[in-house]
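Worked example 2:
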Amino acid sequence: GLPLVIVALPLVWLYLVRVATRLPAEEFPGAREAITEARRGQGPMGRGEKVALTAFLAAAFLWILRRDIELGRVTIPGWSPYVPLSWPDMVGPLDKLPKSLGKWFGQDWGDSAVALVMGVPLLLVPLHMRPLRFALSLGAARTAGWDMILLLGGGFAMAYGIQETGLSAWIAGSLQGRAHVGGFTAMLLVCVVSLVLTEVASNTATANILLPLLPAAAANFGLH
């Protein structure tokens, strides 16, 4: 999606500011002074802000570079093959574990491990010794948007359930033998279904539900 974003964002911006809602060519009176004053009021970055920014960027790069990235003839190697993040890699075979636990421990913990490795140290990195202050306090952690975190987690759980129960395979199988449709019609159907789903589920849950279904549905509709 990156090439599409690089092309689409400038085009959408140009349309909004030059066609849909034309902005005046001259500057707004006092706008530059107001922005300069707001920046001056923020002051320099504090130690806590620098620590949080470093942790955020490190987590983002670790997530992006976790697996190999294929760019035609060039491959950017990922770090996950060299770091043991599953139970068999760290401890040993799953045969000695109960069957109910073996499936859970056999999963790849890569994304979760990155979040923990970047998040937990924030509770331990001191910013000031007198008084003792950490980059992330327990009080600040309690005020995080846990409702949003649970919403996103619920979306992931819903998508996992759809895949594990075979619902996604059943939906794809029900499309067997259907007449082929054009690309525009298929895109219109996807948009309508997405809009309907977002009325009862989060955007993340909608994406997680549709992404496993679209490849199978596309093949049955005769599309790439």
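The chain is about 60% helix and 5% strand. The chain has a mean pLDDT of 80.
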